[in-house]
Amino acid sequence: MLHHKLSDQSAENILAAGLVVDDVRRLISVALDEDLHNGPDVTTNSTVPAHQRSAGVFASRQTGCIAGLAVAGAVFDMVCGAEQVKFVQLVADGARVQPGARVATVEGPTRGLLTAERTALNLLGHLSGVATATSQWADAIASTGAKVRDTRKTTPGMRALEKYAVRCGGGVNHRMSLSDAALVKDNHIVAAGGVAQAFAAVRAAAPNIVLEIEVDTLDQLKTALGAGADLVLLDNMAPGVLREAVAIAKQHFASTGRAVVLEASGGLTLENAESVAATGVNYISVGALTHSAKVLDIGLDLETIVV
Q: What is the dihedral of CA 169, 136, 133, 300, to 10 degrees?
């Protein structure tokens, strides 16, 4: 039977990450239900005495960036009971680690630790993988002044956590949901009858919302700027064309006093990221931060048995 109370430390760490405690609790409940909806952990309960307690250490087996320690700790709270388990973070989320680095310790009922282990590691490894991928992109463009930005290409139900992991890795977040900000894309432009028409329609319906518009050509960029756009997504443009777009935005500012934020998207790789970011754009948009991140291999080994 799951406990739903979190330790004060777990709750504080979740809040400090900018996450909602009840949302994290619900996600963990769904994850644990995949293992426990038909009953308890048969293997563990058959082999481990009910009274036994253990202590263990989480260690990274790869070079990477850590994210999700508070979430992992909350898993043990929910399985073991907050008063029965002690989870200690040895590094902060966002820490860069090498193979063998100890990132956390846990002590509690052995049955509970083993029951919670896989769910905790799944979440911690995935979020650390997102943070690690983001850190690689952030490092690649560090000399340019541009920032790497995520997208809505996230795992269903995991968006808030994955976007948190992006922040841990040195990236910045795009909108969280479809109502947070408007992003007029090519299909919206087709449906509305053009760039200017699509921009005007959103502005009329939501005059105060952050509004970004996607363009494929420099002519569309000029039309968007003429319509009043101050945030433009430049889709699948080569570095030479991006430099022209930046020059157009600068000319627009010189003549109107309205600054324009430019975001490059499409065709990006770690190999070309620096050359794209060096064109003068403010952001590069990378869906791979969340949709293609590899799990960071982190293990939990029990070190001592407390009888």
A: -70
CATH topology of domain 8-131+293-306: Aldehyde Oxidoreductase; domain 3 (3.90.1170)
CA 28/CA 219 separation, integer angstroms: 48
Positions of CATH 3.20.20.70 in the chain? 140-291
Contact by Cβ (8 Å): 54, 107: yes
Handedness of CA 28, 30, 33, 37 (dihedral sign): positive
φ/ψ (deg, to 5) at 202 = -70, -45
Contact 151/137 with Cβ under 8 angstroms? no
Rounded Cα–Cα distance for residues 157 and 146 (Å): 29
Residues forming CATH 3.90.1170.20 domain(s) in the chain: 8-131+293-306
**Which positions are catalytic?**
118, 153, 185, 214, 235
Backbone angles phi, psi at 251, to 5 degrees: -65, -40
1 confidence band (pLDDT: 50, 70, 90): low
Tell me if 195 sits within 8 A of 215, measured CB to CB.
yes
Strand 231-235 and strand 261-265: the pairing is: parallel
Say if CB 268 and CB 286 are below 8 A apart: yes
- The residue to which tokens 């009840």 are assigned: 22
Does an H or E element contain 112, and which? helix 110-140
pLDDT, tens digit (0-9, with 9 covering 90-100), for 270-295: 999 999 999 999 999 999 999 999 99
* pLDDT digit string, tens, across residues 136-183: 999 999 999 999 999 999 999 999 999 999 999 999 999 999 999 999
Instruction: For the domain made up of 140-291, give the CATH fold.
Output: TIM Barrel (3.20.20)
In the numeric block, the tokens 């992992």 are attached to 72
Please indicate, yes or no, whether the overall pTM of this predicted structure exceeds 0.85.
yes
Structure tokens at 143: 């000399």
